[in-house]
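notes to self, project folder thing:

trying the whole complex as one job this time. last attempt i did each chain seperately and stitching them together was a nightmare. two parts in total, labels are on each line so i dont mix them up again. if this works i'll redo the older ones the same way
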Amino acid sequence: MNVIVCVKQIPDPAMPGELDQSTNTLKREGKLILDESDSYGVEMALQLVDAAGEGEVGLVSMAPNGEVSGLRTALAMGAAKAVLVSDPELAGSDALTTAKVLAAAAQRLGDADLIIAGTESSDGYTGTVPEQMAEVLGLPSITFAKSVAVEGGKVKVARQTEAGYDEVECPTPAVVSVTAGVVEPRYPSFKGIMAAKSKPVEEVTAADLGVTPVGWAGADQQIVEVAQAPAREAGEIVEDEGEAHLKIVEFLEGLKVI
Amino acid sequence: MAINNMWVFAQEADGAPSSATLELLTKARSLGGTVSAFVVGDGEAIAGVLGEYGAAKVYSTGTLDGVLPGAAGAAAMKAVIDGGDSPDLILFPQNYEGRDVMGRLSVKLDRTVLTNNTALEVDGDSVKVTTPVFGGETLVTTTFTGEGPYLAAFRPKSFEAAAGDAAAGEVVAAPVPDLGATGAAKVIAVHVEESEGPKLDEAAVVVSGGRGLGDAEKFEMIDRLAKLLKGAPGASRAIVDAGWVPYSMQVGQTGKVVKPNVYIAAGISGATQHMVGMKGSKNIIAINKDAEAPIFGVADLGIVGDVHKVLPKLIEALSAR
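result (full assembly):
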């Protein structure tokens, strides 16, 4: 069974985010790392391929600057190969363009039984790309999976809902978006890290894939204002010396909650 | 093109429209123009309430019989648009079904989507939406530049729901066309995990626990405190991911947005992911060991202390009343 995972390389979330003054979009230059929310998809894919006993995990990713360090992390976890769509023209692409590019990259990677993505990236969090990819590819999709199994040509998913979860199934090929916590991502082993260095990463442009227009030209949206949100004022801070719970009782009384 | 014709993606739960639906209808109604509700499911039963909140017309696909709404809803919407009733703007709730339908529809119409919004402004031809970024510290306002229909999703509780006095909406059938392969995902079984007591996103008091509780068993303190205050228990993403409590209890960017009268955060440091979901609460009480925790920056009352000491005493004091 072959599984393709969409992975995003993002600026380190531990660093404070910053907007580019000229475009008002998130600065995504310099070193990029594997989005943690995609590490779950990579792990899920590796486990599904393991369970099937045959096949491999391929990766597709899109980045304006040719960055591969995040992809190498996923390859070190055990993915076999990757297509990186790297193109300065991609800067400013919206979710729809991203979905078209990733769908084309997935097709370039070859036939897959399953395409897995995170539910949303940690930096842009539009949250529509997996469903948009499915539509571009004409595939069924199951979003917000908290568990995934493949059996007899069918993918079975526990799909999160407002009230709990639904058991959903559909025939493969299909697109599945997985939530954080679906599986515990492995840490790349030393052997994995060394092996990842020689795994194939094909770099292509959007034009190579026949997707145009992309970037600013393809995004029918424009940022018109960036403002500071009104700050919430901090209140009283009390150090607990054994009686702080009484402060809470008093506070709740003041609000007539008790 | 002025914005004259607006659709709201409407959802039904337990025989009534969801609160997010009513919020979006109220907002759409306030902008003037014609408002329609698009129900992916049985719209007949809720047409009365939808009308009251502003929907002159209620498109109804009829029950989906287990087909996931993403592909079905988008195809039904596309069919109506192709049939000649093309809206200028479609408002979606930022939740599972809203995101799925909007994603599919954006491909069918080849239109961009703007998600995670908390505000909407229409000025002549221009539609502006505002999205909080960096944990809500910065507000980014974006406008659509291409042709409509414009597709925008709004976080729950972005707008206040208020009923008007209009009659029931006129129900128009919007059947789901043949979906081919895209309609192959089917719901086999439904599992409800909701706890007793008030609903998390409607409760006047929410008590949430985080990793600072130490282990899953300690969440029992959160349950008890919530019960004593007639509130609902909530959780940070960290402990949902760790499997201590079900996802339906998660408060935050990828969970529920709550705006209760009182929000108590116990053992939660205040990651931006969490703050996005509770910052709008009227009164915030935080208990955390770390005096530097970001949660204290938004707390009206901050207790720097050990939740394992403060919570039992608080529970005892409240039980004795």
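what i see at first glance: Residues 3-218 of chain A form a domain with the Rossmann fold fold (CATH 3.40.50.620).
need to look closer tmrw
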